[in-house]
């Protein structure tokens, strides 16, 4: 197993792997290194015949606060080819997690914003704390939830996606369950217990059959998110180039209101 810095990967004697997002000081925000490491972990765990189940978790107070805005600002300053490399890498990372031939169980606490919601959307089962908070917050920053969009739309449907993408409105765990983003919600102190219940259920099932069932679900869903990778990567690169995104990110760091905000 590779060495990682922005994530950690552990595999126990039962074949249960745990990927933990490991940037707690930044609420596990996604940057270029995390994208590369998550992609590598997904490939390695997918090919490891000893691994039966994968848990995706976040260290500290939050699951994942979405894209790291320092990293986003760096992308805005790159040429078009550089922007496309990073946006395509993000899209491909989500595809690799989505196509992992093992059950992927999300363990969610604290904040799950933007790309954090995207990672929830590629999980087969999501167990969330009833105190967790969610948002597809990109439009407040002049951005769009481009690379995560195919996965989120498949998960919650176009109607809810349009409302949440456009307004960037935050929502709670009950609403996350209502729209099928979260499978189960529970008190924070019961999170690991409920995750273990799902792990135990999966360990009673045949690995090959579970992989085939996942593949069948993807085929029958009617939308193949991987087919949109180039389109969504280009859409994200377009927004990184926009004056709105640059103004929104600047306002965030300056702790001022973005120029489009009206009382």
Automatic annotation (TrEMBL):
Protein keywords: Lyase
SUPFAM superfamilies: ClpP/crotonase
Enzyme Commission code(s) on record: 4.2.1.18
Single GO MF annotation: methylglutaconyl-CoA hydratase activity
Keyword Cell division in annotation: no
InterPro entries cross-referenced by the UniProt entry: ClpP/crotonase-like_dom_sf, Enoyl-CoA_hydra/iso, Enoyl-CoA_Hydratase/Isomerase
NCBIfam families: PRK07468.1
Family stated for the protein in its record: Belongs to the enoyl-CoA hydratase/isomerase family.
Listed name of the protein: Methylglutaconyl-CoA hydratase
Organism the protein comes from: hydrothermal vent metagenome
């Amino acid at each position: 197993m590779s060495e990682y810095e922005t994530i950690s990967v552990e595999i126990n004697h039962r074949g249960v792997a745990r990927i933990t997002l490991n940037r707690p000081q930044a609420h596990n925000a996604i940057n270029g290194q995390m994208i590369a490491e998550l992609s590598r972990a997904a490939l390695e765990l997918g090919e490891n015949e000893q691994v039966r189940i994968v848990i995706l978790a976040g260290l500290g107070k939050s699951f994942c606060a979405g894209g790291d805005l320092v990293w986003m600002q760096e992308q805005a300053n790159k040429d078009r080819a550089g922007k496309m490399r990073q946006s395509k890498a993000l899209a491909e990372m989500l595809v690799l997690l989505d196509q992992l031939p093992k059950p992927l169980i999300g363990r969610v606490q604290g904040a799950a914003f933007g790309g954090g919601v995207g990672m929830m959307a590629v999980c087969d089962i999501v167990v969330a704390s009833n105190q967790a908070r969610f948002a597809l917050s990109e439009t407040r920053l002049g951005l769009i939830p481009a690379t995560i969009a195919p996965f989120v739309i498949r998960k919650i449907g176009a109607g809810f996606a349009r409302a949440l993408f456009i307004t960037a409105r935050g929502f709670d765990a009950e609403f996350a369950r209502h729209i099928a983003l979260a499978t189960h919600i529970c008190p924070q102190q019961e999170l690991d217990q409920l995750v273990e219940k799902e792990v135990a259920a999966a360990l009673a099932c045949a690995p090959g059959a579970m992989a085939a069932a996942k593949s069948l679900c993807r085929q029958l869903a009617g939308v193949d998110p991987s087919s949109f990778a180039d389109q969504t990567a280009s859409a994200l690169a377009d927004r990184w180039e926009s004056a709105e995104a640059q103004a929104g990110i600047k306002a965030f760091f300056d702790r001022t209101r973005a120029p489009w905000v009206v009382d």
